[in-house]
Write a structure and sequence with these properties.
By secondary structure, the protein is α/β, with parallel strands linked by helices. It is about 40% helix and about 25% strand. It has 2 domains: about 5-255, Aldolase class I (TIM Barrel, Alpha-Beta Barrel); about 320-385, Arc Repressor Mutant, subunit A (Orthogonal Bundle).
């Protein structure tokens, strides 16, 4: 079912260096043909304009890669093109991911002038030893100065930290997190380090160059993180994101709430109801930046795969995404996609059994996972959808 709201993601695929834990579509390139890239973004937006008419943009998110490396003119052209196609919501959230280098930090005021009103900074650690291990090019001092600079310019900003790192002690994480909360009291993204295939860390881990915390210690890190953030009134609103009331990232919430989002750029993904289409479409762009660019020149788009999502697959997606939110899934979401409430979709006896075990909470208009059930989120989701 088509909705009027649209959430736009812009992928900028370039970085100064590749972090060893990163499995995102990012590429190291010293020089980028910015004019060609700007033209490609504009043409891709034009292509989707004809298939997503009359929409209102609720959020725009520049992700990557490292979007703060983008020339200001490129950001401006993308925003101007988007504004010429769709209406902007009065309270539109426009986010940009940034890295804490002095070069990028100096551009913060210019980004705000262009319309960016939310900054997400990739810090990852607040000590030099772990920053070096994580392959980050900035120091802890640079990181803290960048955050302070962002706080002077943006009302809405956040930064990322990775925890449960090799050899990391719970006590040191406790003090590091306390410092992080002082630096960003409204929103933090806190991720446990995971080893993904295809990354440099995967090879290093397989070669036993470092050891990861065992499951029990990793669970202790997660519990401690939730305890400290809760005391600071940073509520866990999604499995790795913590915020004060009304400071959640509206763009990321769109993914978890199965809203229509359009991905532009190399390797970007979309989930949208195209105009006059009853089925939701799953779209994936070509990953290689040059291939993406060439395809747009040839076809006006860079779609590698597009398929209609059947109802069974869509239901799995809605549950998989939505139950990761602390607030769970409202019936409004089930009605929007399936025309039925959750009570009419799932095995009621199975749901009641999970509720008796204290794993889920069933309300008239909402289903959610309880605090005690969060550690078993994946297992609970599997039980519900099978």
């Amino acid at each position: 079912m088509m909705t009027n709201d649209l959430f736009l993601y812009i992928h900028y695929p370039f970085c100064k260096s590749k972090c060893p834990y990163c499995d995102f579509n990012s590429h190291v390139k010293k020089e980028v043909a910015d004019e060609d890239f700007a033209s490609a973004y504009e043409k891709e937006l034009d292509y989707f304009a004809s298939q997503l008419k009359g929409r209102q943009l609720k959020t725009i998110f520049f992700g990557g890669g490292t979007p703060s490396l983008m020339p200001l003119n490129l950001v401006e052209r993308i925003l101007n093109k988007a504004a010429s196609i769709w209406a902007f919501a009065p309270n539109i959230e426009i986010s940009l991911e940034a890295n804490p280098t002095s070069f990028e930090s100096q551009k913060f005021r210019d980004f705000k002038y262009l319309g960016i009103n939310r900054l997400s900074i990739g810090i990852q650690a607040l000590n030099d030893a772990d920053l070096k291990f994580l392959g980050r090019e900035h120091s802890a001092f640079e990181a803290k100065e960048t955050i302070k600079n962002a706080a002077k310019i943006f009302d809405n900003y956040s930064f990322d930290l990775i925890y449960a790192r090799p050899k990391q002690a719970l006590k040191s994480w406790e003090s590091e997190l306390a410092e992080a909360i002082k630096l960003a009291p409204h929103h933090l993204s806190l991720y446990q380090l995971t080893i993904e295939k295809g990354t440099a860390f995967y090879s290093m881990f397989k070669s036993k160059k470092f050891e990861m915390p065992d499951e029990n210690l990793a669970a202790d890190f997660y519990d401690l993180t939730n305890e400290i953030t809760a005391k600071a009134s940073l509520e866990l609103y999604e499995i790795s994101n913590y915020a004060r009331a009304n400071k959640e990232c509206a763009h990321n919430l769109a993914y978890w709430k199965s809203q229509d989002y359009l991905g532009i750029g190399a390797g970007a993904h979309s989930r949208v109801y195209l105009d006059d289409d009853k089925n939701r479409s799953k779209i994936m762009n070509w990953h290689d930046p040059k291939k993406w660019q060439n395809e747009i020149l040839k076809n006006a788009h860079a779609i590698q795969e597009i398929e209609k999502i059947n109802q069974e697959e869509l239901l799995e997606e809605v549950i998989l995404m939505g139950l990761r939110l602390s607030s769970g899934i409202d019936n409004e979401i089930f009605l929007r996609h399936f025309g039925r409430k959750y009570q009419e979709i799932f095995d009621w006896e199975k749901l009641k059994n999970l509720e008796k075990l204290g794993l889920i909470e069933l309300k008239e208009n909402n289903i959610s996972i309880t605090k005690s059930g969060r550690i078993l989120t994946n297992s609970i989701i599997e039980k519900i959808i099978t």
